Amino acid sequence: MTPKRTITGLALALGAFAPLVAQTPLFTDGPAFGGSKIFSEGRNPLGNSARYDQPPPGYYFTYLDGDNRAQDNKSSLQDAVSADAGMASAALAKLKDAPWAQRTRAFGFASIRNTVHFALVREELNGLTAMPDLNPADLGSSAALLNNTTQVNARRAVVERMSFGGGSSTNGTGFGASLRLERWSMGARTGALNPWPGAANLSEAESLLGYTGTQNKTLTYAMDMGFVTELAQGLRLGVTVDQLNPKVLWEVHLKPQFRAGLQIALGPSTSVSVESDINGVEKMPFPVKQQTTSASLRFEASPAVALVLGAQRRKIGDASVTQGGVTLQLRTPTLLVAVGLQLGQDRPLRSATVMVN
Question: pTM for this structure?
Answer without folding.
Answer: 0.86
